C-alpha cells in the first residue's frame, strides 16, 4: 500500500484538447508552436524557481506563449493567448485514466494529484475531466512558491499527506518529475505517453508503462 | 571598473553556424528542430542541476538532440547527433563581439567568459572564434557539477575571479542567465540578439542593448 501521487497535465489530462484552438490560431504551425511553448514553459518555470521568483503557472504559461509566438514571428494578441491557455481548464482525461485510478484504489492505494497548476485551476481541470471524485486530494505547488521538480514541493506534499518518502510514488509522464521525486526518497512510475521519453542521464523510474492502467498492474501492491 | 563575465553560446558565438549541418540533416524542419532542441537542452540542464545529477554539457546536448529528433519522428543516428553537436566547437563570433570586448577593456574593465560548456569545449570554441586572446579568463561550470543559473555557479566564478558580487556584471543573451546572476548580487547586461527576449516575470537586467558594442557603451565605466 502506498500513496500514489499523480501529475496532472499530460499525465492524467490530454493536451490534445488544445489542438483545435492552436490550429485556429497558428494553422499549419500549430504543432510546432505547442511543442516549443510547452518546452519553454517547463524551462521558464524551473528557472523561476532557481532564481527565486514566483507567479501562478497560468500566468507563466500565458507569458511564455505570447513570447514564443513573438520569437517565431507569429501574431498573437494578449487576449488570444489567454484564451488558448484557458483551454487547459477544459482538457479531457486520457482514456485509461479512470480505470487506472480505480485499479490503484482497488489495490489498496491512496491516489492524489500534485500539479504545477494553481490550486483553483487544478480543481477546475480535474472537475471538468470528472476525476475530482476519484482523487483523495488535489495538491498544487502554490503554497511552496516553487515549481516541481524543486525538492521543497515534494517535501511539502509529503507533509500534507502525512506520508514518509518511502511510501510515496510519483506518477508522471515527465522524466523530470519522476527524477525530482526520487531525489527526495520517493519511488516513481513513468507513464510513457506518446511523444514522452525518459532521459537516460536521469535516475531511471521505479516502474514504467505506456498508460496508467498498465502502470497500476506494474505497481501492484507497491512493494 | 568591473569584471564583465560573458556567456559564450548565443552571446559571443553565433549558433547560425549550425544552420548548414542542421539543414542537411533535417531539411525544411531544421529551424524547428534547432529551436526545440535548444529549449529542451536548457530545460534538461536546469532539471539535472535541480535533481542533483551531472554530465558534461556536450553529452547532455547530444542526448537531448537524439531525443528531440525521436519525438518529432525524424531519423537521426548517434554518430550524426555527435557531428551536429560537435559543430558547436566551430561557431563564429557575432560581428560586434571583437569591438565590444575591445570597448569594454578600453573602459578599464576585465572581460572573462563563463559558460555551461565544458572547459575543454569552451577553450576550443573561443580559440576557433579568435576570442581566447581577448579574454582574461575562460571559466566553465565544470568544477561545480551544476549548470547556470544555479547560484553555486556564480559563487564559484566570483571566488575564482576574486571579485565581490557587486563588482561583477553577467553579460548574456539569455534572461535566465542575467536573472540567475542578479539573484547572487551581480549586475547584468542583456544582449537582445535576434529572437532573444527578456521574460517580464524575471528581475529586469541592469543594462540592455542589441549587441555587445552597444552594451559596452551603455555600461560605460560600470558605475
Automatic annotation (TrEMBL), chains A, B:
Keywords: Hydrolase. Pfam families: Hydrolase. GO terms for molecular function: hydrolase activity, acting on acid halide bonds, in C-halide compounds. The keyword Hydrolase applies. Belongs to the HAD-like hydrolase superfamily. S-2-haloalkanoic acid dehalogenase family. This is Cryptic haloacid dehalogenase 1.
Amino acid at each position: 500500500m502506498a500513496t500514489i501521487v499523480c501529475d496532472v497535465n499530460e499525465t492524467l489530462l490530454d493536451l490534445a484538447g488544445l489542438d483545435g484552438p492552436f490550429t485556429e490560431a497558428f494553422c499549419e504551425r500549430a504543432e510546432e508552436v505547442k511543442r516549443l511553448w510547452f518546452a519553454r514553459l517547463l524551462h521558464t518555470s524551473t528557472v523561476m524557481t532557481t532564481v527565486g521568483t514566483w507567479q501562478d503557472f497560468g500566468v507563466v504559461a500565458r507569458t511564455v506563449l505570447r513570447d514564443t509566438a513573438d520569437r517565431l514571428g507569429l501574431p498573437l494578441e494578449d487576449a488570444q493567448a489567454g484564451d488558448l491557455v484557458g483551454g487547459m481548464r477544459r482538457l479531457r482525461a486520457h482514456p485509461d485514466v479512470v480505470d487506472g485510478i480505480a485499479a490503484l484504489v482497488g489495490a489498496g492505494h491512496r491516489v492524489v494529484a500534485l500539479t504545477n497548476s494553481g490550486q483553483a485551476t487544478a480543481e477546475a481541470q480535474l472537475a471538468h475531466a470528472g476525476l475530482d471524485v476519484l482523487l483523495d486530494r488535489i495538491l498544487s505547488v502554490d503554497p511552496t512558491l516553487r515549481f516541481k521538480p524543486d525538492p521543497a514541493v515534494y517535501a511539502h506534499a509529503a507533509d500534507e499527506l502525512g506520508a514518509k518518502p518511502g511510501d510515496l510514488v510519483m506518477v508522471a509522464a515527465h522524466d523530470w518529475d519522476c527524477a525530482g521525486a526520487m531525489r527526495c526518497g520517493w519511488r516513481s512510475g513513468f507513464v510513457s505517453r506518446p511523444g514522452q521519453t525518459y532521459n537516460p542521464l536521469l535516475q531511471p523510474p521505479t516502474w514504467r508503462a505506456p498508460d496508467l492502467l498498465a502502470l497500476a498492474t506494474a505497481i501492484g501492491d507497491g512493494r
